[in-house]
Specification:
Blueprint (H helix, E strand, L loop, with lengths): L5 H73 E4 L2 E5 L6 H10 L3 E2 L5 H8 L5 E6 L8 E2 L26 E4 L10 E4 L6 E7 L3
Parallel strand pairs: 4-8
Antiparallel strand pairs: 1-2, 2-8, 3-8, 4-5, 4-6, 6-7
Length: 204
Amino acid sequence: KTMINKNTSFSLVSDKDQLQTSYNTAIRERDQLQTRYNTAIKERDQLQTRYNTAIKERDQLQSSNSVLTKEKTQLETNYRMCSFSCYYISNEEKNWDTSRQYCKDRGADLVIINSKEEQAFIDRFNSRFWIGLSDKEREGTWKWVDGTIMPQYEGNWESGEPNNYKRDEDCVETRIMNPEPNKRWNDLPCDFVLRWVCEKQASS
């Protein structure tokens, strides 16, 4: 028989306990490392998401800046000087209200024609334009966008105008349909789409 003395038995038990302790420590360290790894992966993914968001926002800002630069260039190109006012001559067509809002968004308003020189200036562009005159508030009372009421029978109306033809014609266009320079205005339904002219003070 092989005899195992007490010292040998005690040593084996001690070695087993140490191995178990080492194993438990290794498992605990592994779990801690796994947790740290998972945390690192999560933080990496969060950083990646934030990076992607930042790139997207940068691209959107670059795109917006390009659009604003293009609009600024177009505005500078289309604004013309005459006397003490600046004028924006549109290339697009919109209804009267949308045209006016376009002007107001840019610190201007639809043009108020109060001189022969101003009418002649707009005539040079040889097109149909909305101007800042309407009787939207009260039929037959023609009012400029600054609130000034135009006296009856005044203005550069074409012969027979304003006539409110067929349906509500509450907004005014200027056009060249008559060789006489003082016969340019015609009333139209406000939902017609035309080019328009914005006006603002040169000092503003």
